[in-house]
Specification:
Layout: E1 2-6, E2 15-19, E3 24-29, E4 34-44, E5 51-61, E6 67-74
Antiparallel strand pairs: 1-2, 3-4, 4-5, 5-6
Length: 75
């Protein structure tokens, strides 16, 4: 999955795309028809090289793979 984030460096703030394919992933059933996924990883800003720790929390509908909700945290 590709997401867009902003650099956590206040002096930079550049927006860039991140592919979460290589992130560590954990999942658990969050209901009868949904699964919650937590993907975590680190990336470097392409503008200033600041390391960003990224967490993506997603609720996915099991039958269709539809993303019901998604929260992205960057630190």
């Amino acid at each position: 999955m590709t997401i867009s984030i902003d650099c956590p460096n206040e002096d930079c703030g550049a927006a860039f795309s991140v592919n979460t394919e290589d992130f560590e992933s954990q999942s658990e059933s969050s209901g009868n028809h949904t699964t919650q996924y937590l993907e975590t990883g680190s990336v470097n800003c392409p503008e200033c090289e600041t390391e960003a720790n990224v967490e993506v929390l997603s609720d996915i509908l099991n039958d269709t793979g539809e993303v019901l909700s998604q929260e992205v945290r960057v630190s």
